[in-house]
Amino acid sequence: MPAKPKGARLYLERERRSKDDKLIASARWIIRDGEVRVSTGCAEGEVGRAEAALAEYLKRKHEAQLTLEVTSAQGDRRAPADIPIADVLSLYVDHKSEDGLASLSDMMLRVGSLNDWWGNRPLSSITILTCREYLKHRLEQPNRRVMTERTGTPPKPIKPASVRRELEDLQAAVNYHRKCGLCTEVVSVWLPPKAPPKTAYLTETDAAKLLWAMWTMREAQKRNRKGENAGTAQPTKKYTGRHLARFLLVGLYTGTRASAICAASFWREPGRSWVDVDRGLFYRLADGQQETKKRQPPVRILPRLLAHLRRWKAQAEAERALAHREHREPRFGNAVVEWQGQPIKSVRKGFASAALKAGLDPRIVTPHILRHTAATWMMQRGKLTVWDAAGILGMTVEVLERHYGHHRPDFQQKLDGAFK
């Protein structure tokens, strides 16, 4: 086995004399670096100067290596005018697909809209003016989520907040492309102003109305009738909103985001959040998924909700055992919130129907309002410190105080005696 290289180092060359003892060369310090030998010009007693010469040599060697690496990478780096934005978006999608992004389908919709308008343009075309043009163009487009042909629902216009989210994806794609060493310049994306934060929340009365509406929602069917009920839809015995009631209870008691509730399972599974009813913990971050800026720390489940969760899991286990004995598929799956034995992906439509039934505005009462409500109720009751409440909700103390701090009973209490 060859000897391991020692790297650049100082070496003292002894003096050299002729056969008749005449001095040919005095002792001196040299730098040895593999087969390279560099003179420092320092005598045996000038150790300090020799060490300084070695440091200078190492600095020059490092700079030369850096220059070599940059030069070799120039073949892949191009100017923004030579880079199609379609290539930038494609690289970003591949990167996110490898990361196992939970909301990959939503991102693909946004990237598709970006590619339709930006794809054939070069990276150098991204300016404030073109970003404003894109904003204007998108605000005139219908929302792709509304399937007008199938549902008959008129298309809704795109909101400025949605366009901002698309441009944020474009900025992330451009930044990732540059970090991969494929662009010679920094390209910035202009973003529209942020939408004002939503401050609406449910009162206890509103929450009770919404829960009752979800629990009593029934499917309506048209039947061949005669008389005054002819041709009108009549309610059946099939309840269609009880899975929404589960969603509501979990959201109110834990303040968890809708995506984590929809993905929650009673058993630990890869790629899903899960509820440990034995220890009373809700692991909101999906198993095997990397944590993002939207932090999802585990949360302790309150006794009132934990009783429901244990009962729901016992029902699922009993159904599993019965189905196994009867050699059939079980009616219940593993999910905490499910519809017809399958985990749900979204509750937007069902939530809107329940809000209308409860006499609430479906434009305000959305699934995310449960998180706002949980944060607001924690602040109003004042039993938790801001630090504890922020930890439960998975948000920073600064965000909690900025958006919900005014609900605390001791908010600006010092003003009481300020004008006495």
Task: Write the SSE topology.
Layout: E1 9-13, E2 16-17, E3 23-25, E4 28-33, E5 36-43, H1 47-73, H2 85-99, H3 104-118, H4 128-139, H5 148-151, H6 160-179, H7 204-216, E6 218-222, E7 233-239, H8 242-254, H9 258-262, E8 274-276, E9 281-283, E10 299-300, H10 303-325, E11 338-339, E12 342-343, H11 348-357, H12 369-381, H13 386-393, H14 397-404
Antiparallel strand pairs: 1-4, 2-3, 4-5, 6-7, 8-9, 9-10, 11-12
What does this structure look like?
This protein is α+β, with helices and mostly antiparallel strands and 420 residues long. It folds into three domains: 9-15 and 24-73; 80-179, DNA polymerase, domain 1 (Orthogonal Bundle), CATH 1.10.150; 204-219 and 236-411, hpI Integrase, Chain A, CATH 1.10.443.10. Helices cover 44% and strands 11% of the residues. Strands 1-4-5 form a three-stranded antiparallel β-sheet, covered by helices on one side. A three-stranded antiparallel β-sheet has the order 8-9-10. A two-stranded antiparallel ribbon has the order 2-3. Strand 2 (16-17) and strand 3 form a beta hairpin. Helix 2 (85-99) packs across helix 6 (160-179) and helix 4 (128-139) crosses helix 6 (160-179). It starts with 8 loop residues before the first strand and ends in a 16-residue tail after the last helix.
